[in-house]
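Cross-posted from the bioinformatics board.
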Amino acid sequence: MTAALRRGLRSMPLYATVWLVGIVMVTPLLYALISGFKSNDQLSSNTFGLPSPWVTENYTGILGDSAFWRSLGSSTVIALGSTALTVGAAALAAFALARFAFRGRETLFTLFTVGLMFPFAVAILPLFIMLRTFGLLDNPWGVILPQAAFGLPVTVVILRAFFREIPGELEEAATIDGCSAFGFFWRILLPMARPALGTVSVLAVVGSWNNFLLPLLVFSDPSWWTIPVGVQQFQGQYSSDVARVCAYLVLAMAPALAFYAVAERQLIGGITLGATKG
Amino acid sequence: MTSTHLGAPHPAAAEEPLRPAANVRPRARRFRDWATAFTFTVPALILFGLLVLAPILFALYVSFFNWGGFGSPSDFAGTDNFTRLFDDPVFLGDLWRGLVLVVLSIALQLPFALAMAVLLNQRLRGRAVYRMLFFAPYVLSEVITGVLFVMIFAPDEGLADKSLGSIGLDGVGGLWFAGQDTVLPTLFLVMMWKYFGFHMMLYLAGLQGIPSELHDAARIDGAGTWQRFRYITLPLLGPTIRMTVFLSVIGSIQLFDLVWIVTQGGPDHHSETMAVTLFQFGFKRYQVGYASAISIAMFLISLVFALGYQRLVLRRDTEGALTTMRANR
């Protein structure tokens, strides 16, 4: 037996294991994708096979419906708004917390880190009452502002760690050249921190995109329903039409998976940093 | 302004009190520095204070009242809402079910994630593809995941039962989410499908931090695969493992979306979590005072657990990340 062959045989169980796990992971997704091309009769009589004939009405029906596009739009608007707000506010705060010495700095930072570990659900009830009092129900700001606030801790923690690593000489040089604190932040620190900003932005986008509880409570009017709320409502409406729900799921998960494909590195960097810094 | 900014501080210096330097500086200038720094934190402070801290204080206040959620709370209830927690079989059940999920996660999900991380850390053809695939469910919302698995685990008609039937295992599956004894394990399977990739990614990052020289040296000394795993990989991965345990517990405390979509806590509360009970009382039954007591309980449980865990378990890893930040990565 050649060495290569022996090595190949030895790694067989290894490949078999990852293959098996891979199949378990991909089956639910493929099942939804393929079932979306079936009629419900086909689905119960021919669960495992390919559709025959391929039914495209499920997908085209949803894509032709403005409700789907509207929820895609509101998810996008809300994700971008929350991200811009949380990253903007967190970057300013992280700058102060990383590069200034002032009394109460560590207390302030601790305050933010405490926010890392307590669940969103804890605040949801009073938050809802506050939003109702301020008339922010059925208003995108009612989702954007709380999401931005709850996104602050992880963003501040990651950005502060990053800002601290930028050498002090750079700041001295900038100051000597007449740069103000804000000028240094805006013209030097932020451009240098682009990778870190990318990471925290991706985290914020994914968090906002998948949030369910808050938009569910805030939006009673369908015009602002985000994708998760839309999925829930669609399933309630068509619960017996499994094929159509499958098609909706596939279309609803497509943007998230596409975003993941593009931003994989930032996302994984982000969760790793978030976990180790928290 | 030069002297006002800290450069990248030395790790040890970050914890030093800053007063000595401040005393040297004139008072006006010191105030100006403080004002500048403070101005930068204002937007974040307003957001955080108004939308994170204030709601929690508000919940604390409301938890001492019987209140339906409209008007202002006036029917003072003392600590009734809190004593009621200890008599509420659903809330006590929530704690128990949370514990079950944590134990299942530590016993099954984390070891599985670790095994996959070790496998995918080898030179393996297509490992980037597997890595991407295993992590992919993490980016899907729990709502999409929930709806998907409701269809897959539909009794008799779903993919799970049909697959078991097709290989002659009719009746092995069955009720899944609909059974009082099967709902929690089924839910756990779904959580594992969705979240093991997340833990695997953290382990992979940890594994990449282990110098390969250690493994080479051990191999030369005659250590086998298991020995190298047991005496090199596992101890050096300690901080990561302790962190994933922490995240599992926090995740279990706040579990809501998935349960709400799949079972709404049923059948007969057998999959209910604290967050679901909170939602039921707060938004369906309008017992806002009691629901607030549940949210305060959740907050205290998270806080006590987090502080205790930081102090007892994570201390050596992060030097108490809660109170001070390690300046180096």
